[in-house]
Amino acid sequence: MTNNELRTPSLLDALIPIAALVVMMGSAVYLFKDNSSYGPNQIALLLAMGLAAIIGMKNGYSWRTIEKGIVDGISMSLGACLILLAVGALIGTWMLAGTVPTLIYFGLELLNPSFFYAAACLICAVVAMSIGSSWTTAATVGVALMGVSAGMDMSAAITAGAVVSGAYFGDKISPLSETTNLAPAVAGTDLFEHIRYMLWTTIPSFVLALILFTVLGFSEGGEAQASRIVEMQTLLNESFKLGWHLLVPLIVLLTLAVKKMPAFPAVFIGALLGGIWAVVFQWDVVVSMASSEDSTNIGALKVVWTALFDGVSFSTPDENLNSLLSRGGMSSMLNTIWLIICAMSFGAVLERVGLLKRAVSAILYGAKSAGDMVLRTILTCFGTNLVTADQYMAIVMPGRMYKEEFEKRGLDQLNLSRSLEDGGTLTSPLIPWNTCGAYMHSVLLVNPFDYIFYAFFNVINPILAVCYAYFGIKILRITPPDSVVSTQGNQ
């Protein structure tokens, strides 16, 4: 069957693989609980991909065409996979060098338990806004804040929610962010006008999030025991030679990010610098981990090399501290990369055989008001995040499909670009199999299903955007092209 004989998929065709995936994902969570992302979800995605491929072949697509779509889809995620590997190496060497332990130590010294969640959110927001990367923020400051949270006996889920909220707020309003540049590019709007227009929804959402984190901090702050904090600091001080100089790798990484160096080389440079810092400032720690069969220098080299690919393992009298510090390495990211590859394969097949476009076209049916358009755009972005597992796809595809429709209905494209970020960027870390959700899980060690109700900014912002649209608040309008033609004709 040639391309001219391809059949347009029906709505049932489009819904079958999506419904099958939802059922299988639900079953995986029910049967395997927290381990669902370590194999069961991947199998569900591949089975759903196979079902979509069968439907595509029924409609005339060849396997060669579908396979090319899969390869193209996976290639889109390779950049993220490389960053994940670099982040794994960075965490390993920064643990060994004492960089993360130093951040934890001083965080325990400076942060008050009553204001911890709000402070964590605000710190991540400032860092992410400065460097334009929610991923780098979570992998550096976020990891340290998770350690501080453990030292204070605070909730890991709420802390992860605060980190994600702050990181994505800063990322969303930073002109250095890739997604903040991508949304206006797709919608056809100016970058800085786009950022200014987003402030009407992002600022109130962020303020509400900070208020909620403050309330939660006061309710839990009294439970944090001073003796536990002192104990954690003592163990850190005994295990490492701590000092402000150990933060140089972090400063270098943030500087490279501000200078707009691509994430992969910047993070990997930070990881290598962490290895050098470990040898220079934590020599006793490095030597203690070396094999007795090797010479001192060779043993030290092998320890740093191992930290890059397999992380580090510490043994202190405190098991909680051991689990906090014993992590990192490229190998720790392999399961996440496996999940991303499977998710991108599923999304790529849906797009290549036209099933995703068919499902989305049904969403627009019956849309009349600006509120309807914004709601459907945000839902489409969220749905695209669910089925394609990639935030870039969740911005580009709905943007391409709805651009003309917004113009026809007399809505300025700024409404579209803001909605793409509200629905595409912000919901991506809330989905465990999405590249962003899988990344946050790997770095923060908290499942998105656990922190989803505490990522207040990411949840409040899309809801507030829809409310604005239905009440007509800050909805920009233009003269529809049809109206212009009609007016000129009457003249």
Please, could you describe this protein's structure?
With 491 residues, the protein is mainly alpha-helical. It has a domain at 79-333. It is 76% helix and 0% strand. It is built from 24 helices and no strands. The chain has helices at 11-32, 40-58, 63-97, 99-110, 116-131, 134-151, 156-172, 178-187, 191-221, 226-239, 248-258, 263-281, 283-289, 296-310, 319-325, 334-352, 355-363, 370-388, 391-408, 413-425, 435-444, 448-451, 456-471, 481-490. α3 runs antiparallel to α16 and α4 (99-110) packs antiparallel against α10. The longest helix is centred in the first third of the chain and has 35 residues, at 63-97.
Estimate what percentage of residues fall within beta strands. under 5%
| Shape type | globular
Distance between the termini: 52 Å
**Count of alpha and pi helical runs:** 24
Oligomerization category of the chains in this entry? single chain
> What is the element string, with H for helices and E for strands?
HHHHHHHHHHHHHHHHHHHHHHHH
User: How many β-strand stretches?
Assistant: 0
> Biggest sheet, in brief?
none
Structural class: mainly alpha
- Provide mean pLDDT, rounded: 86
Radius of gyration based on Cα positions: 24 Å
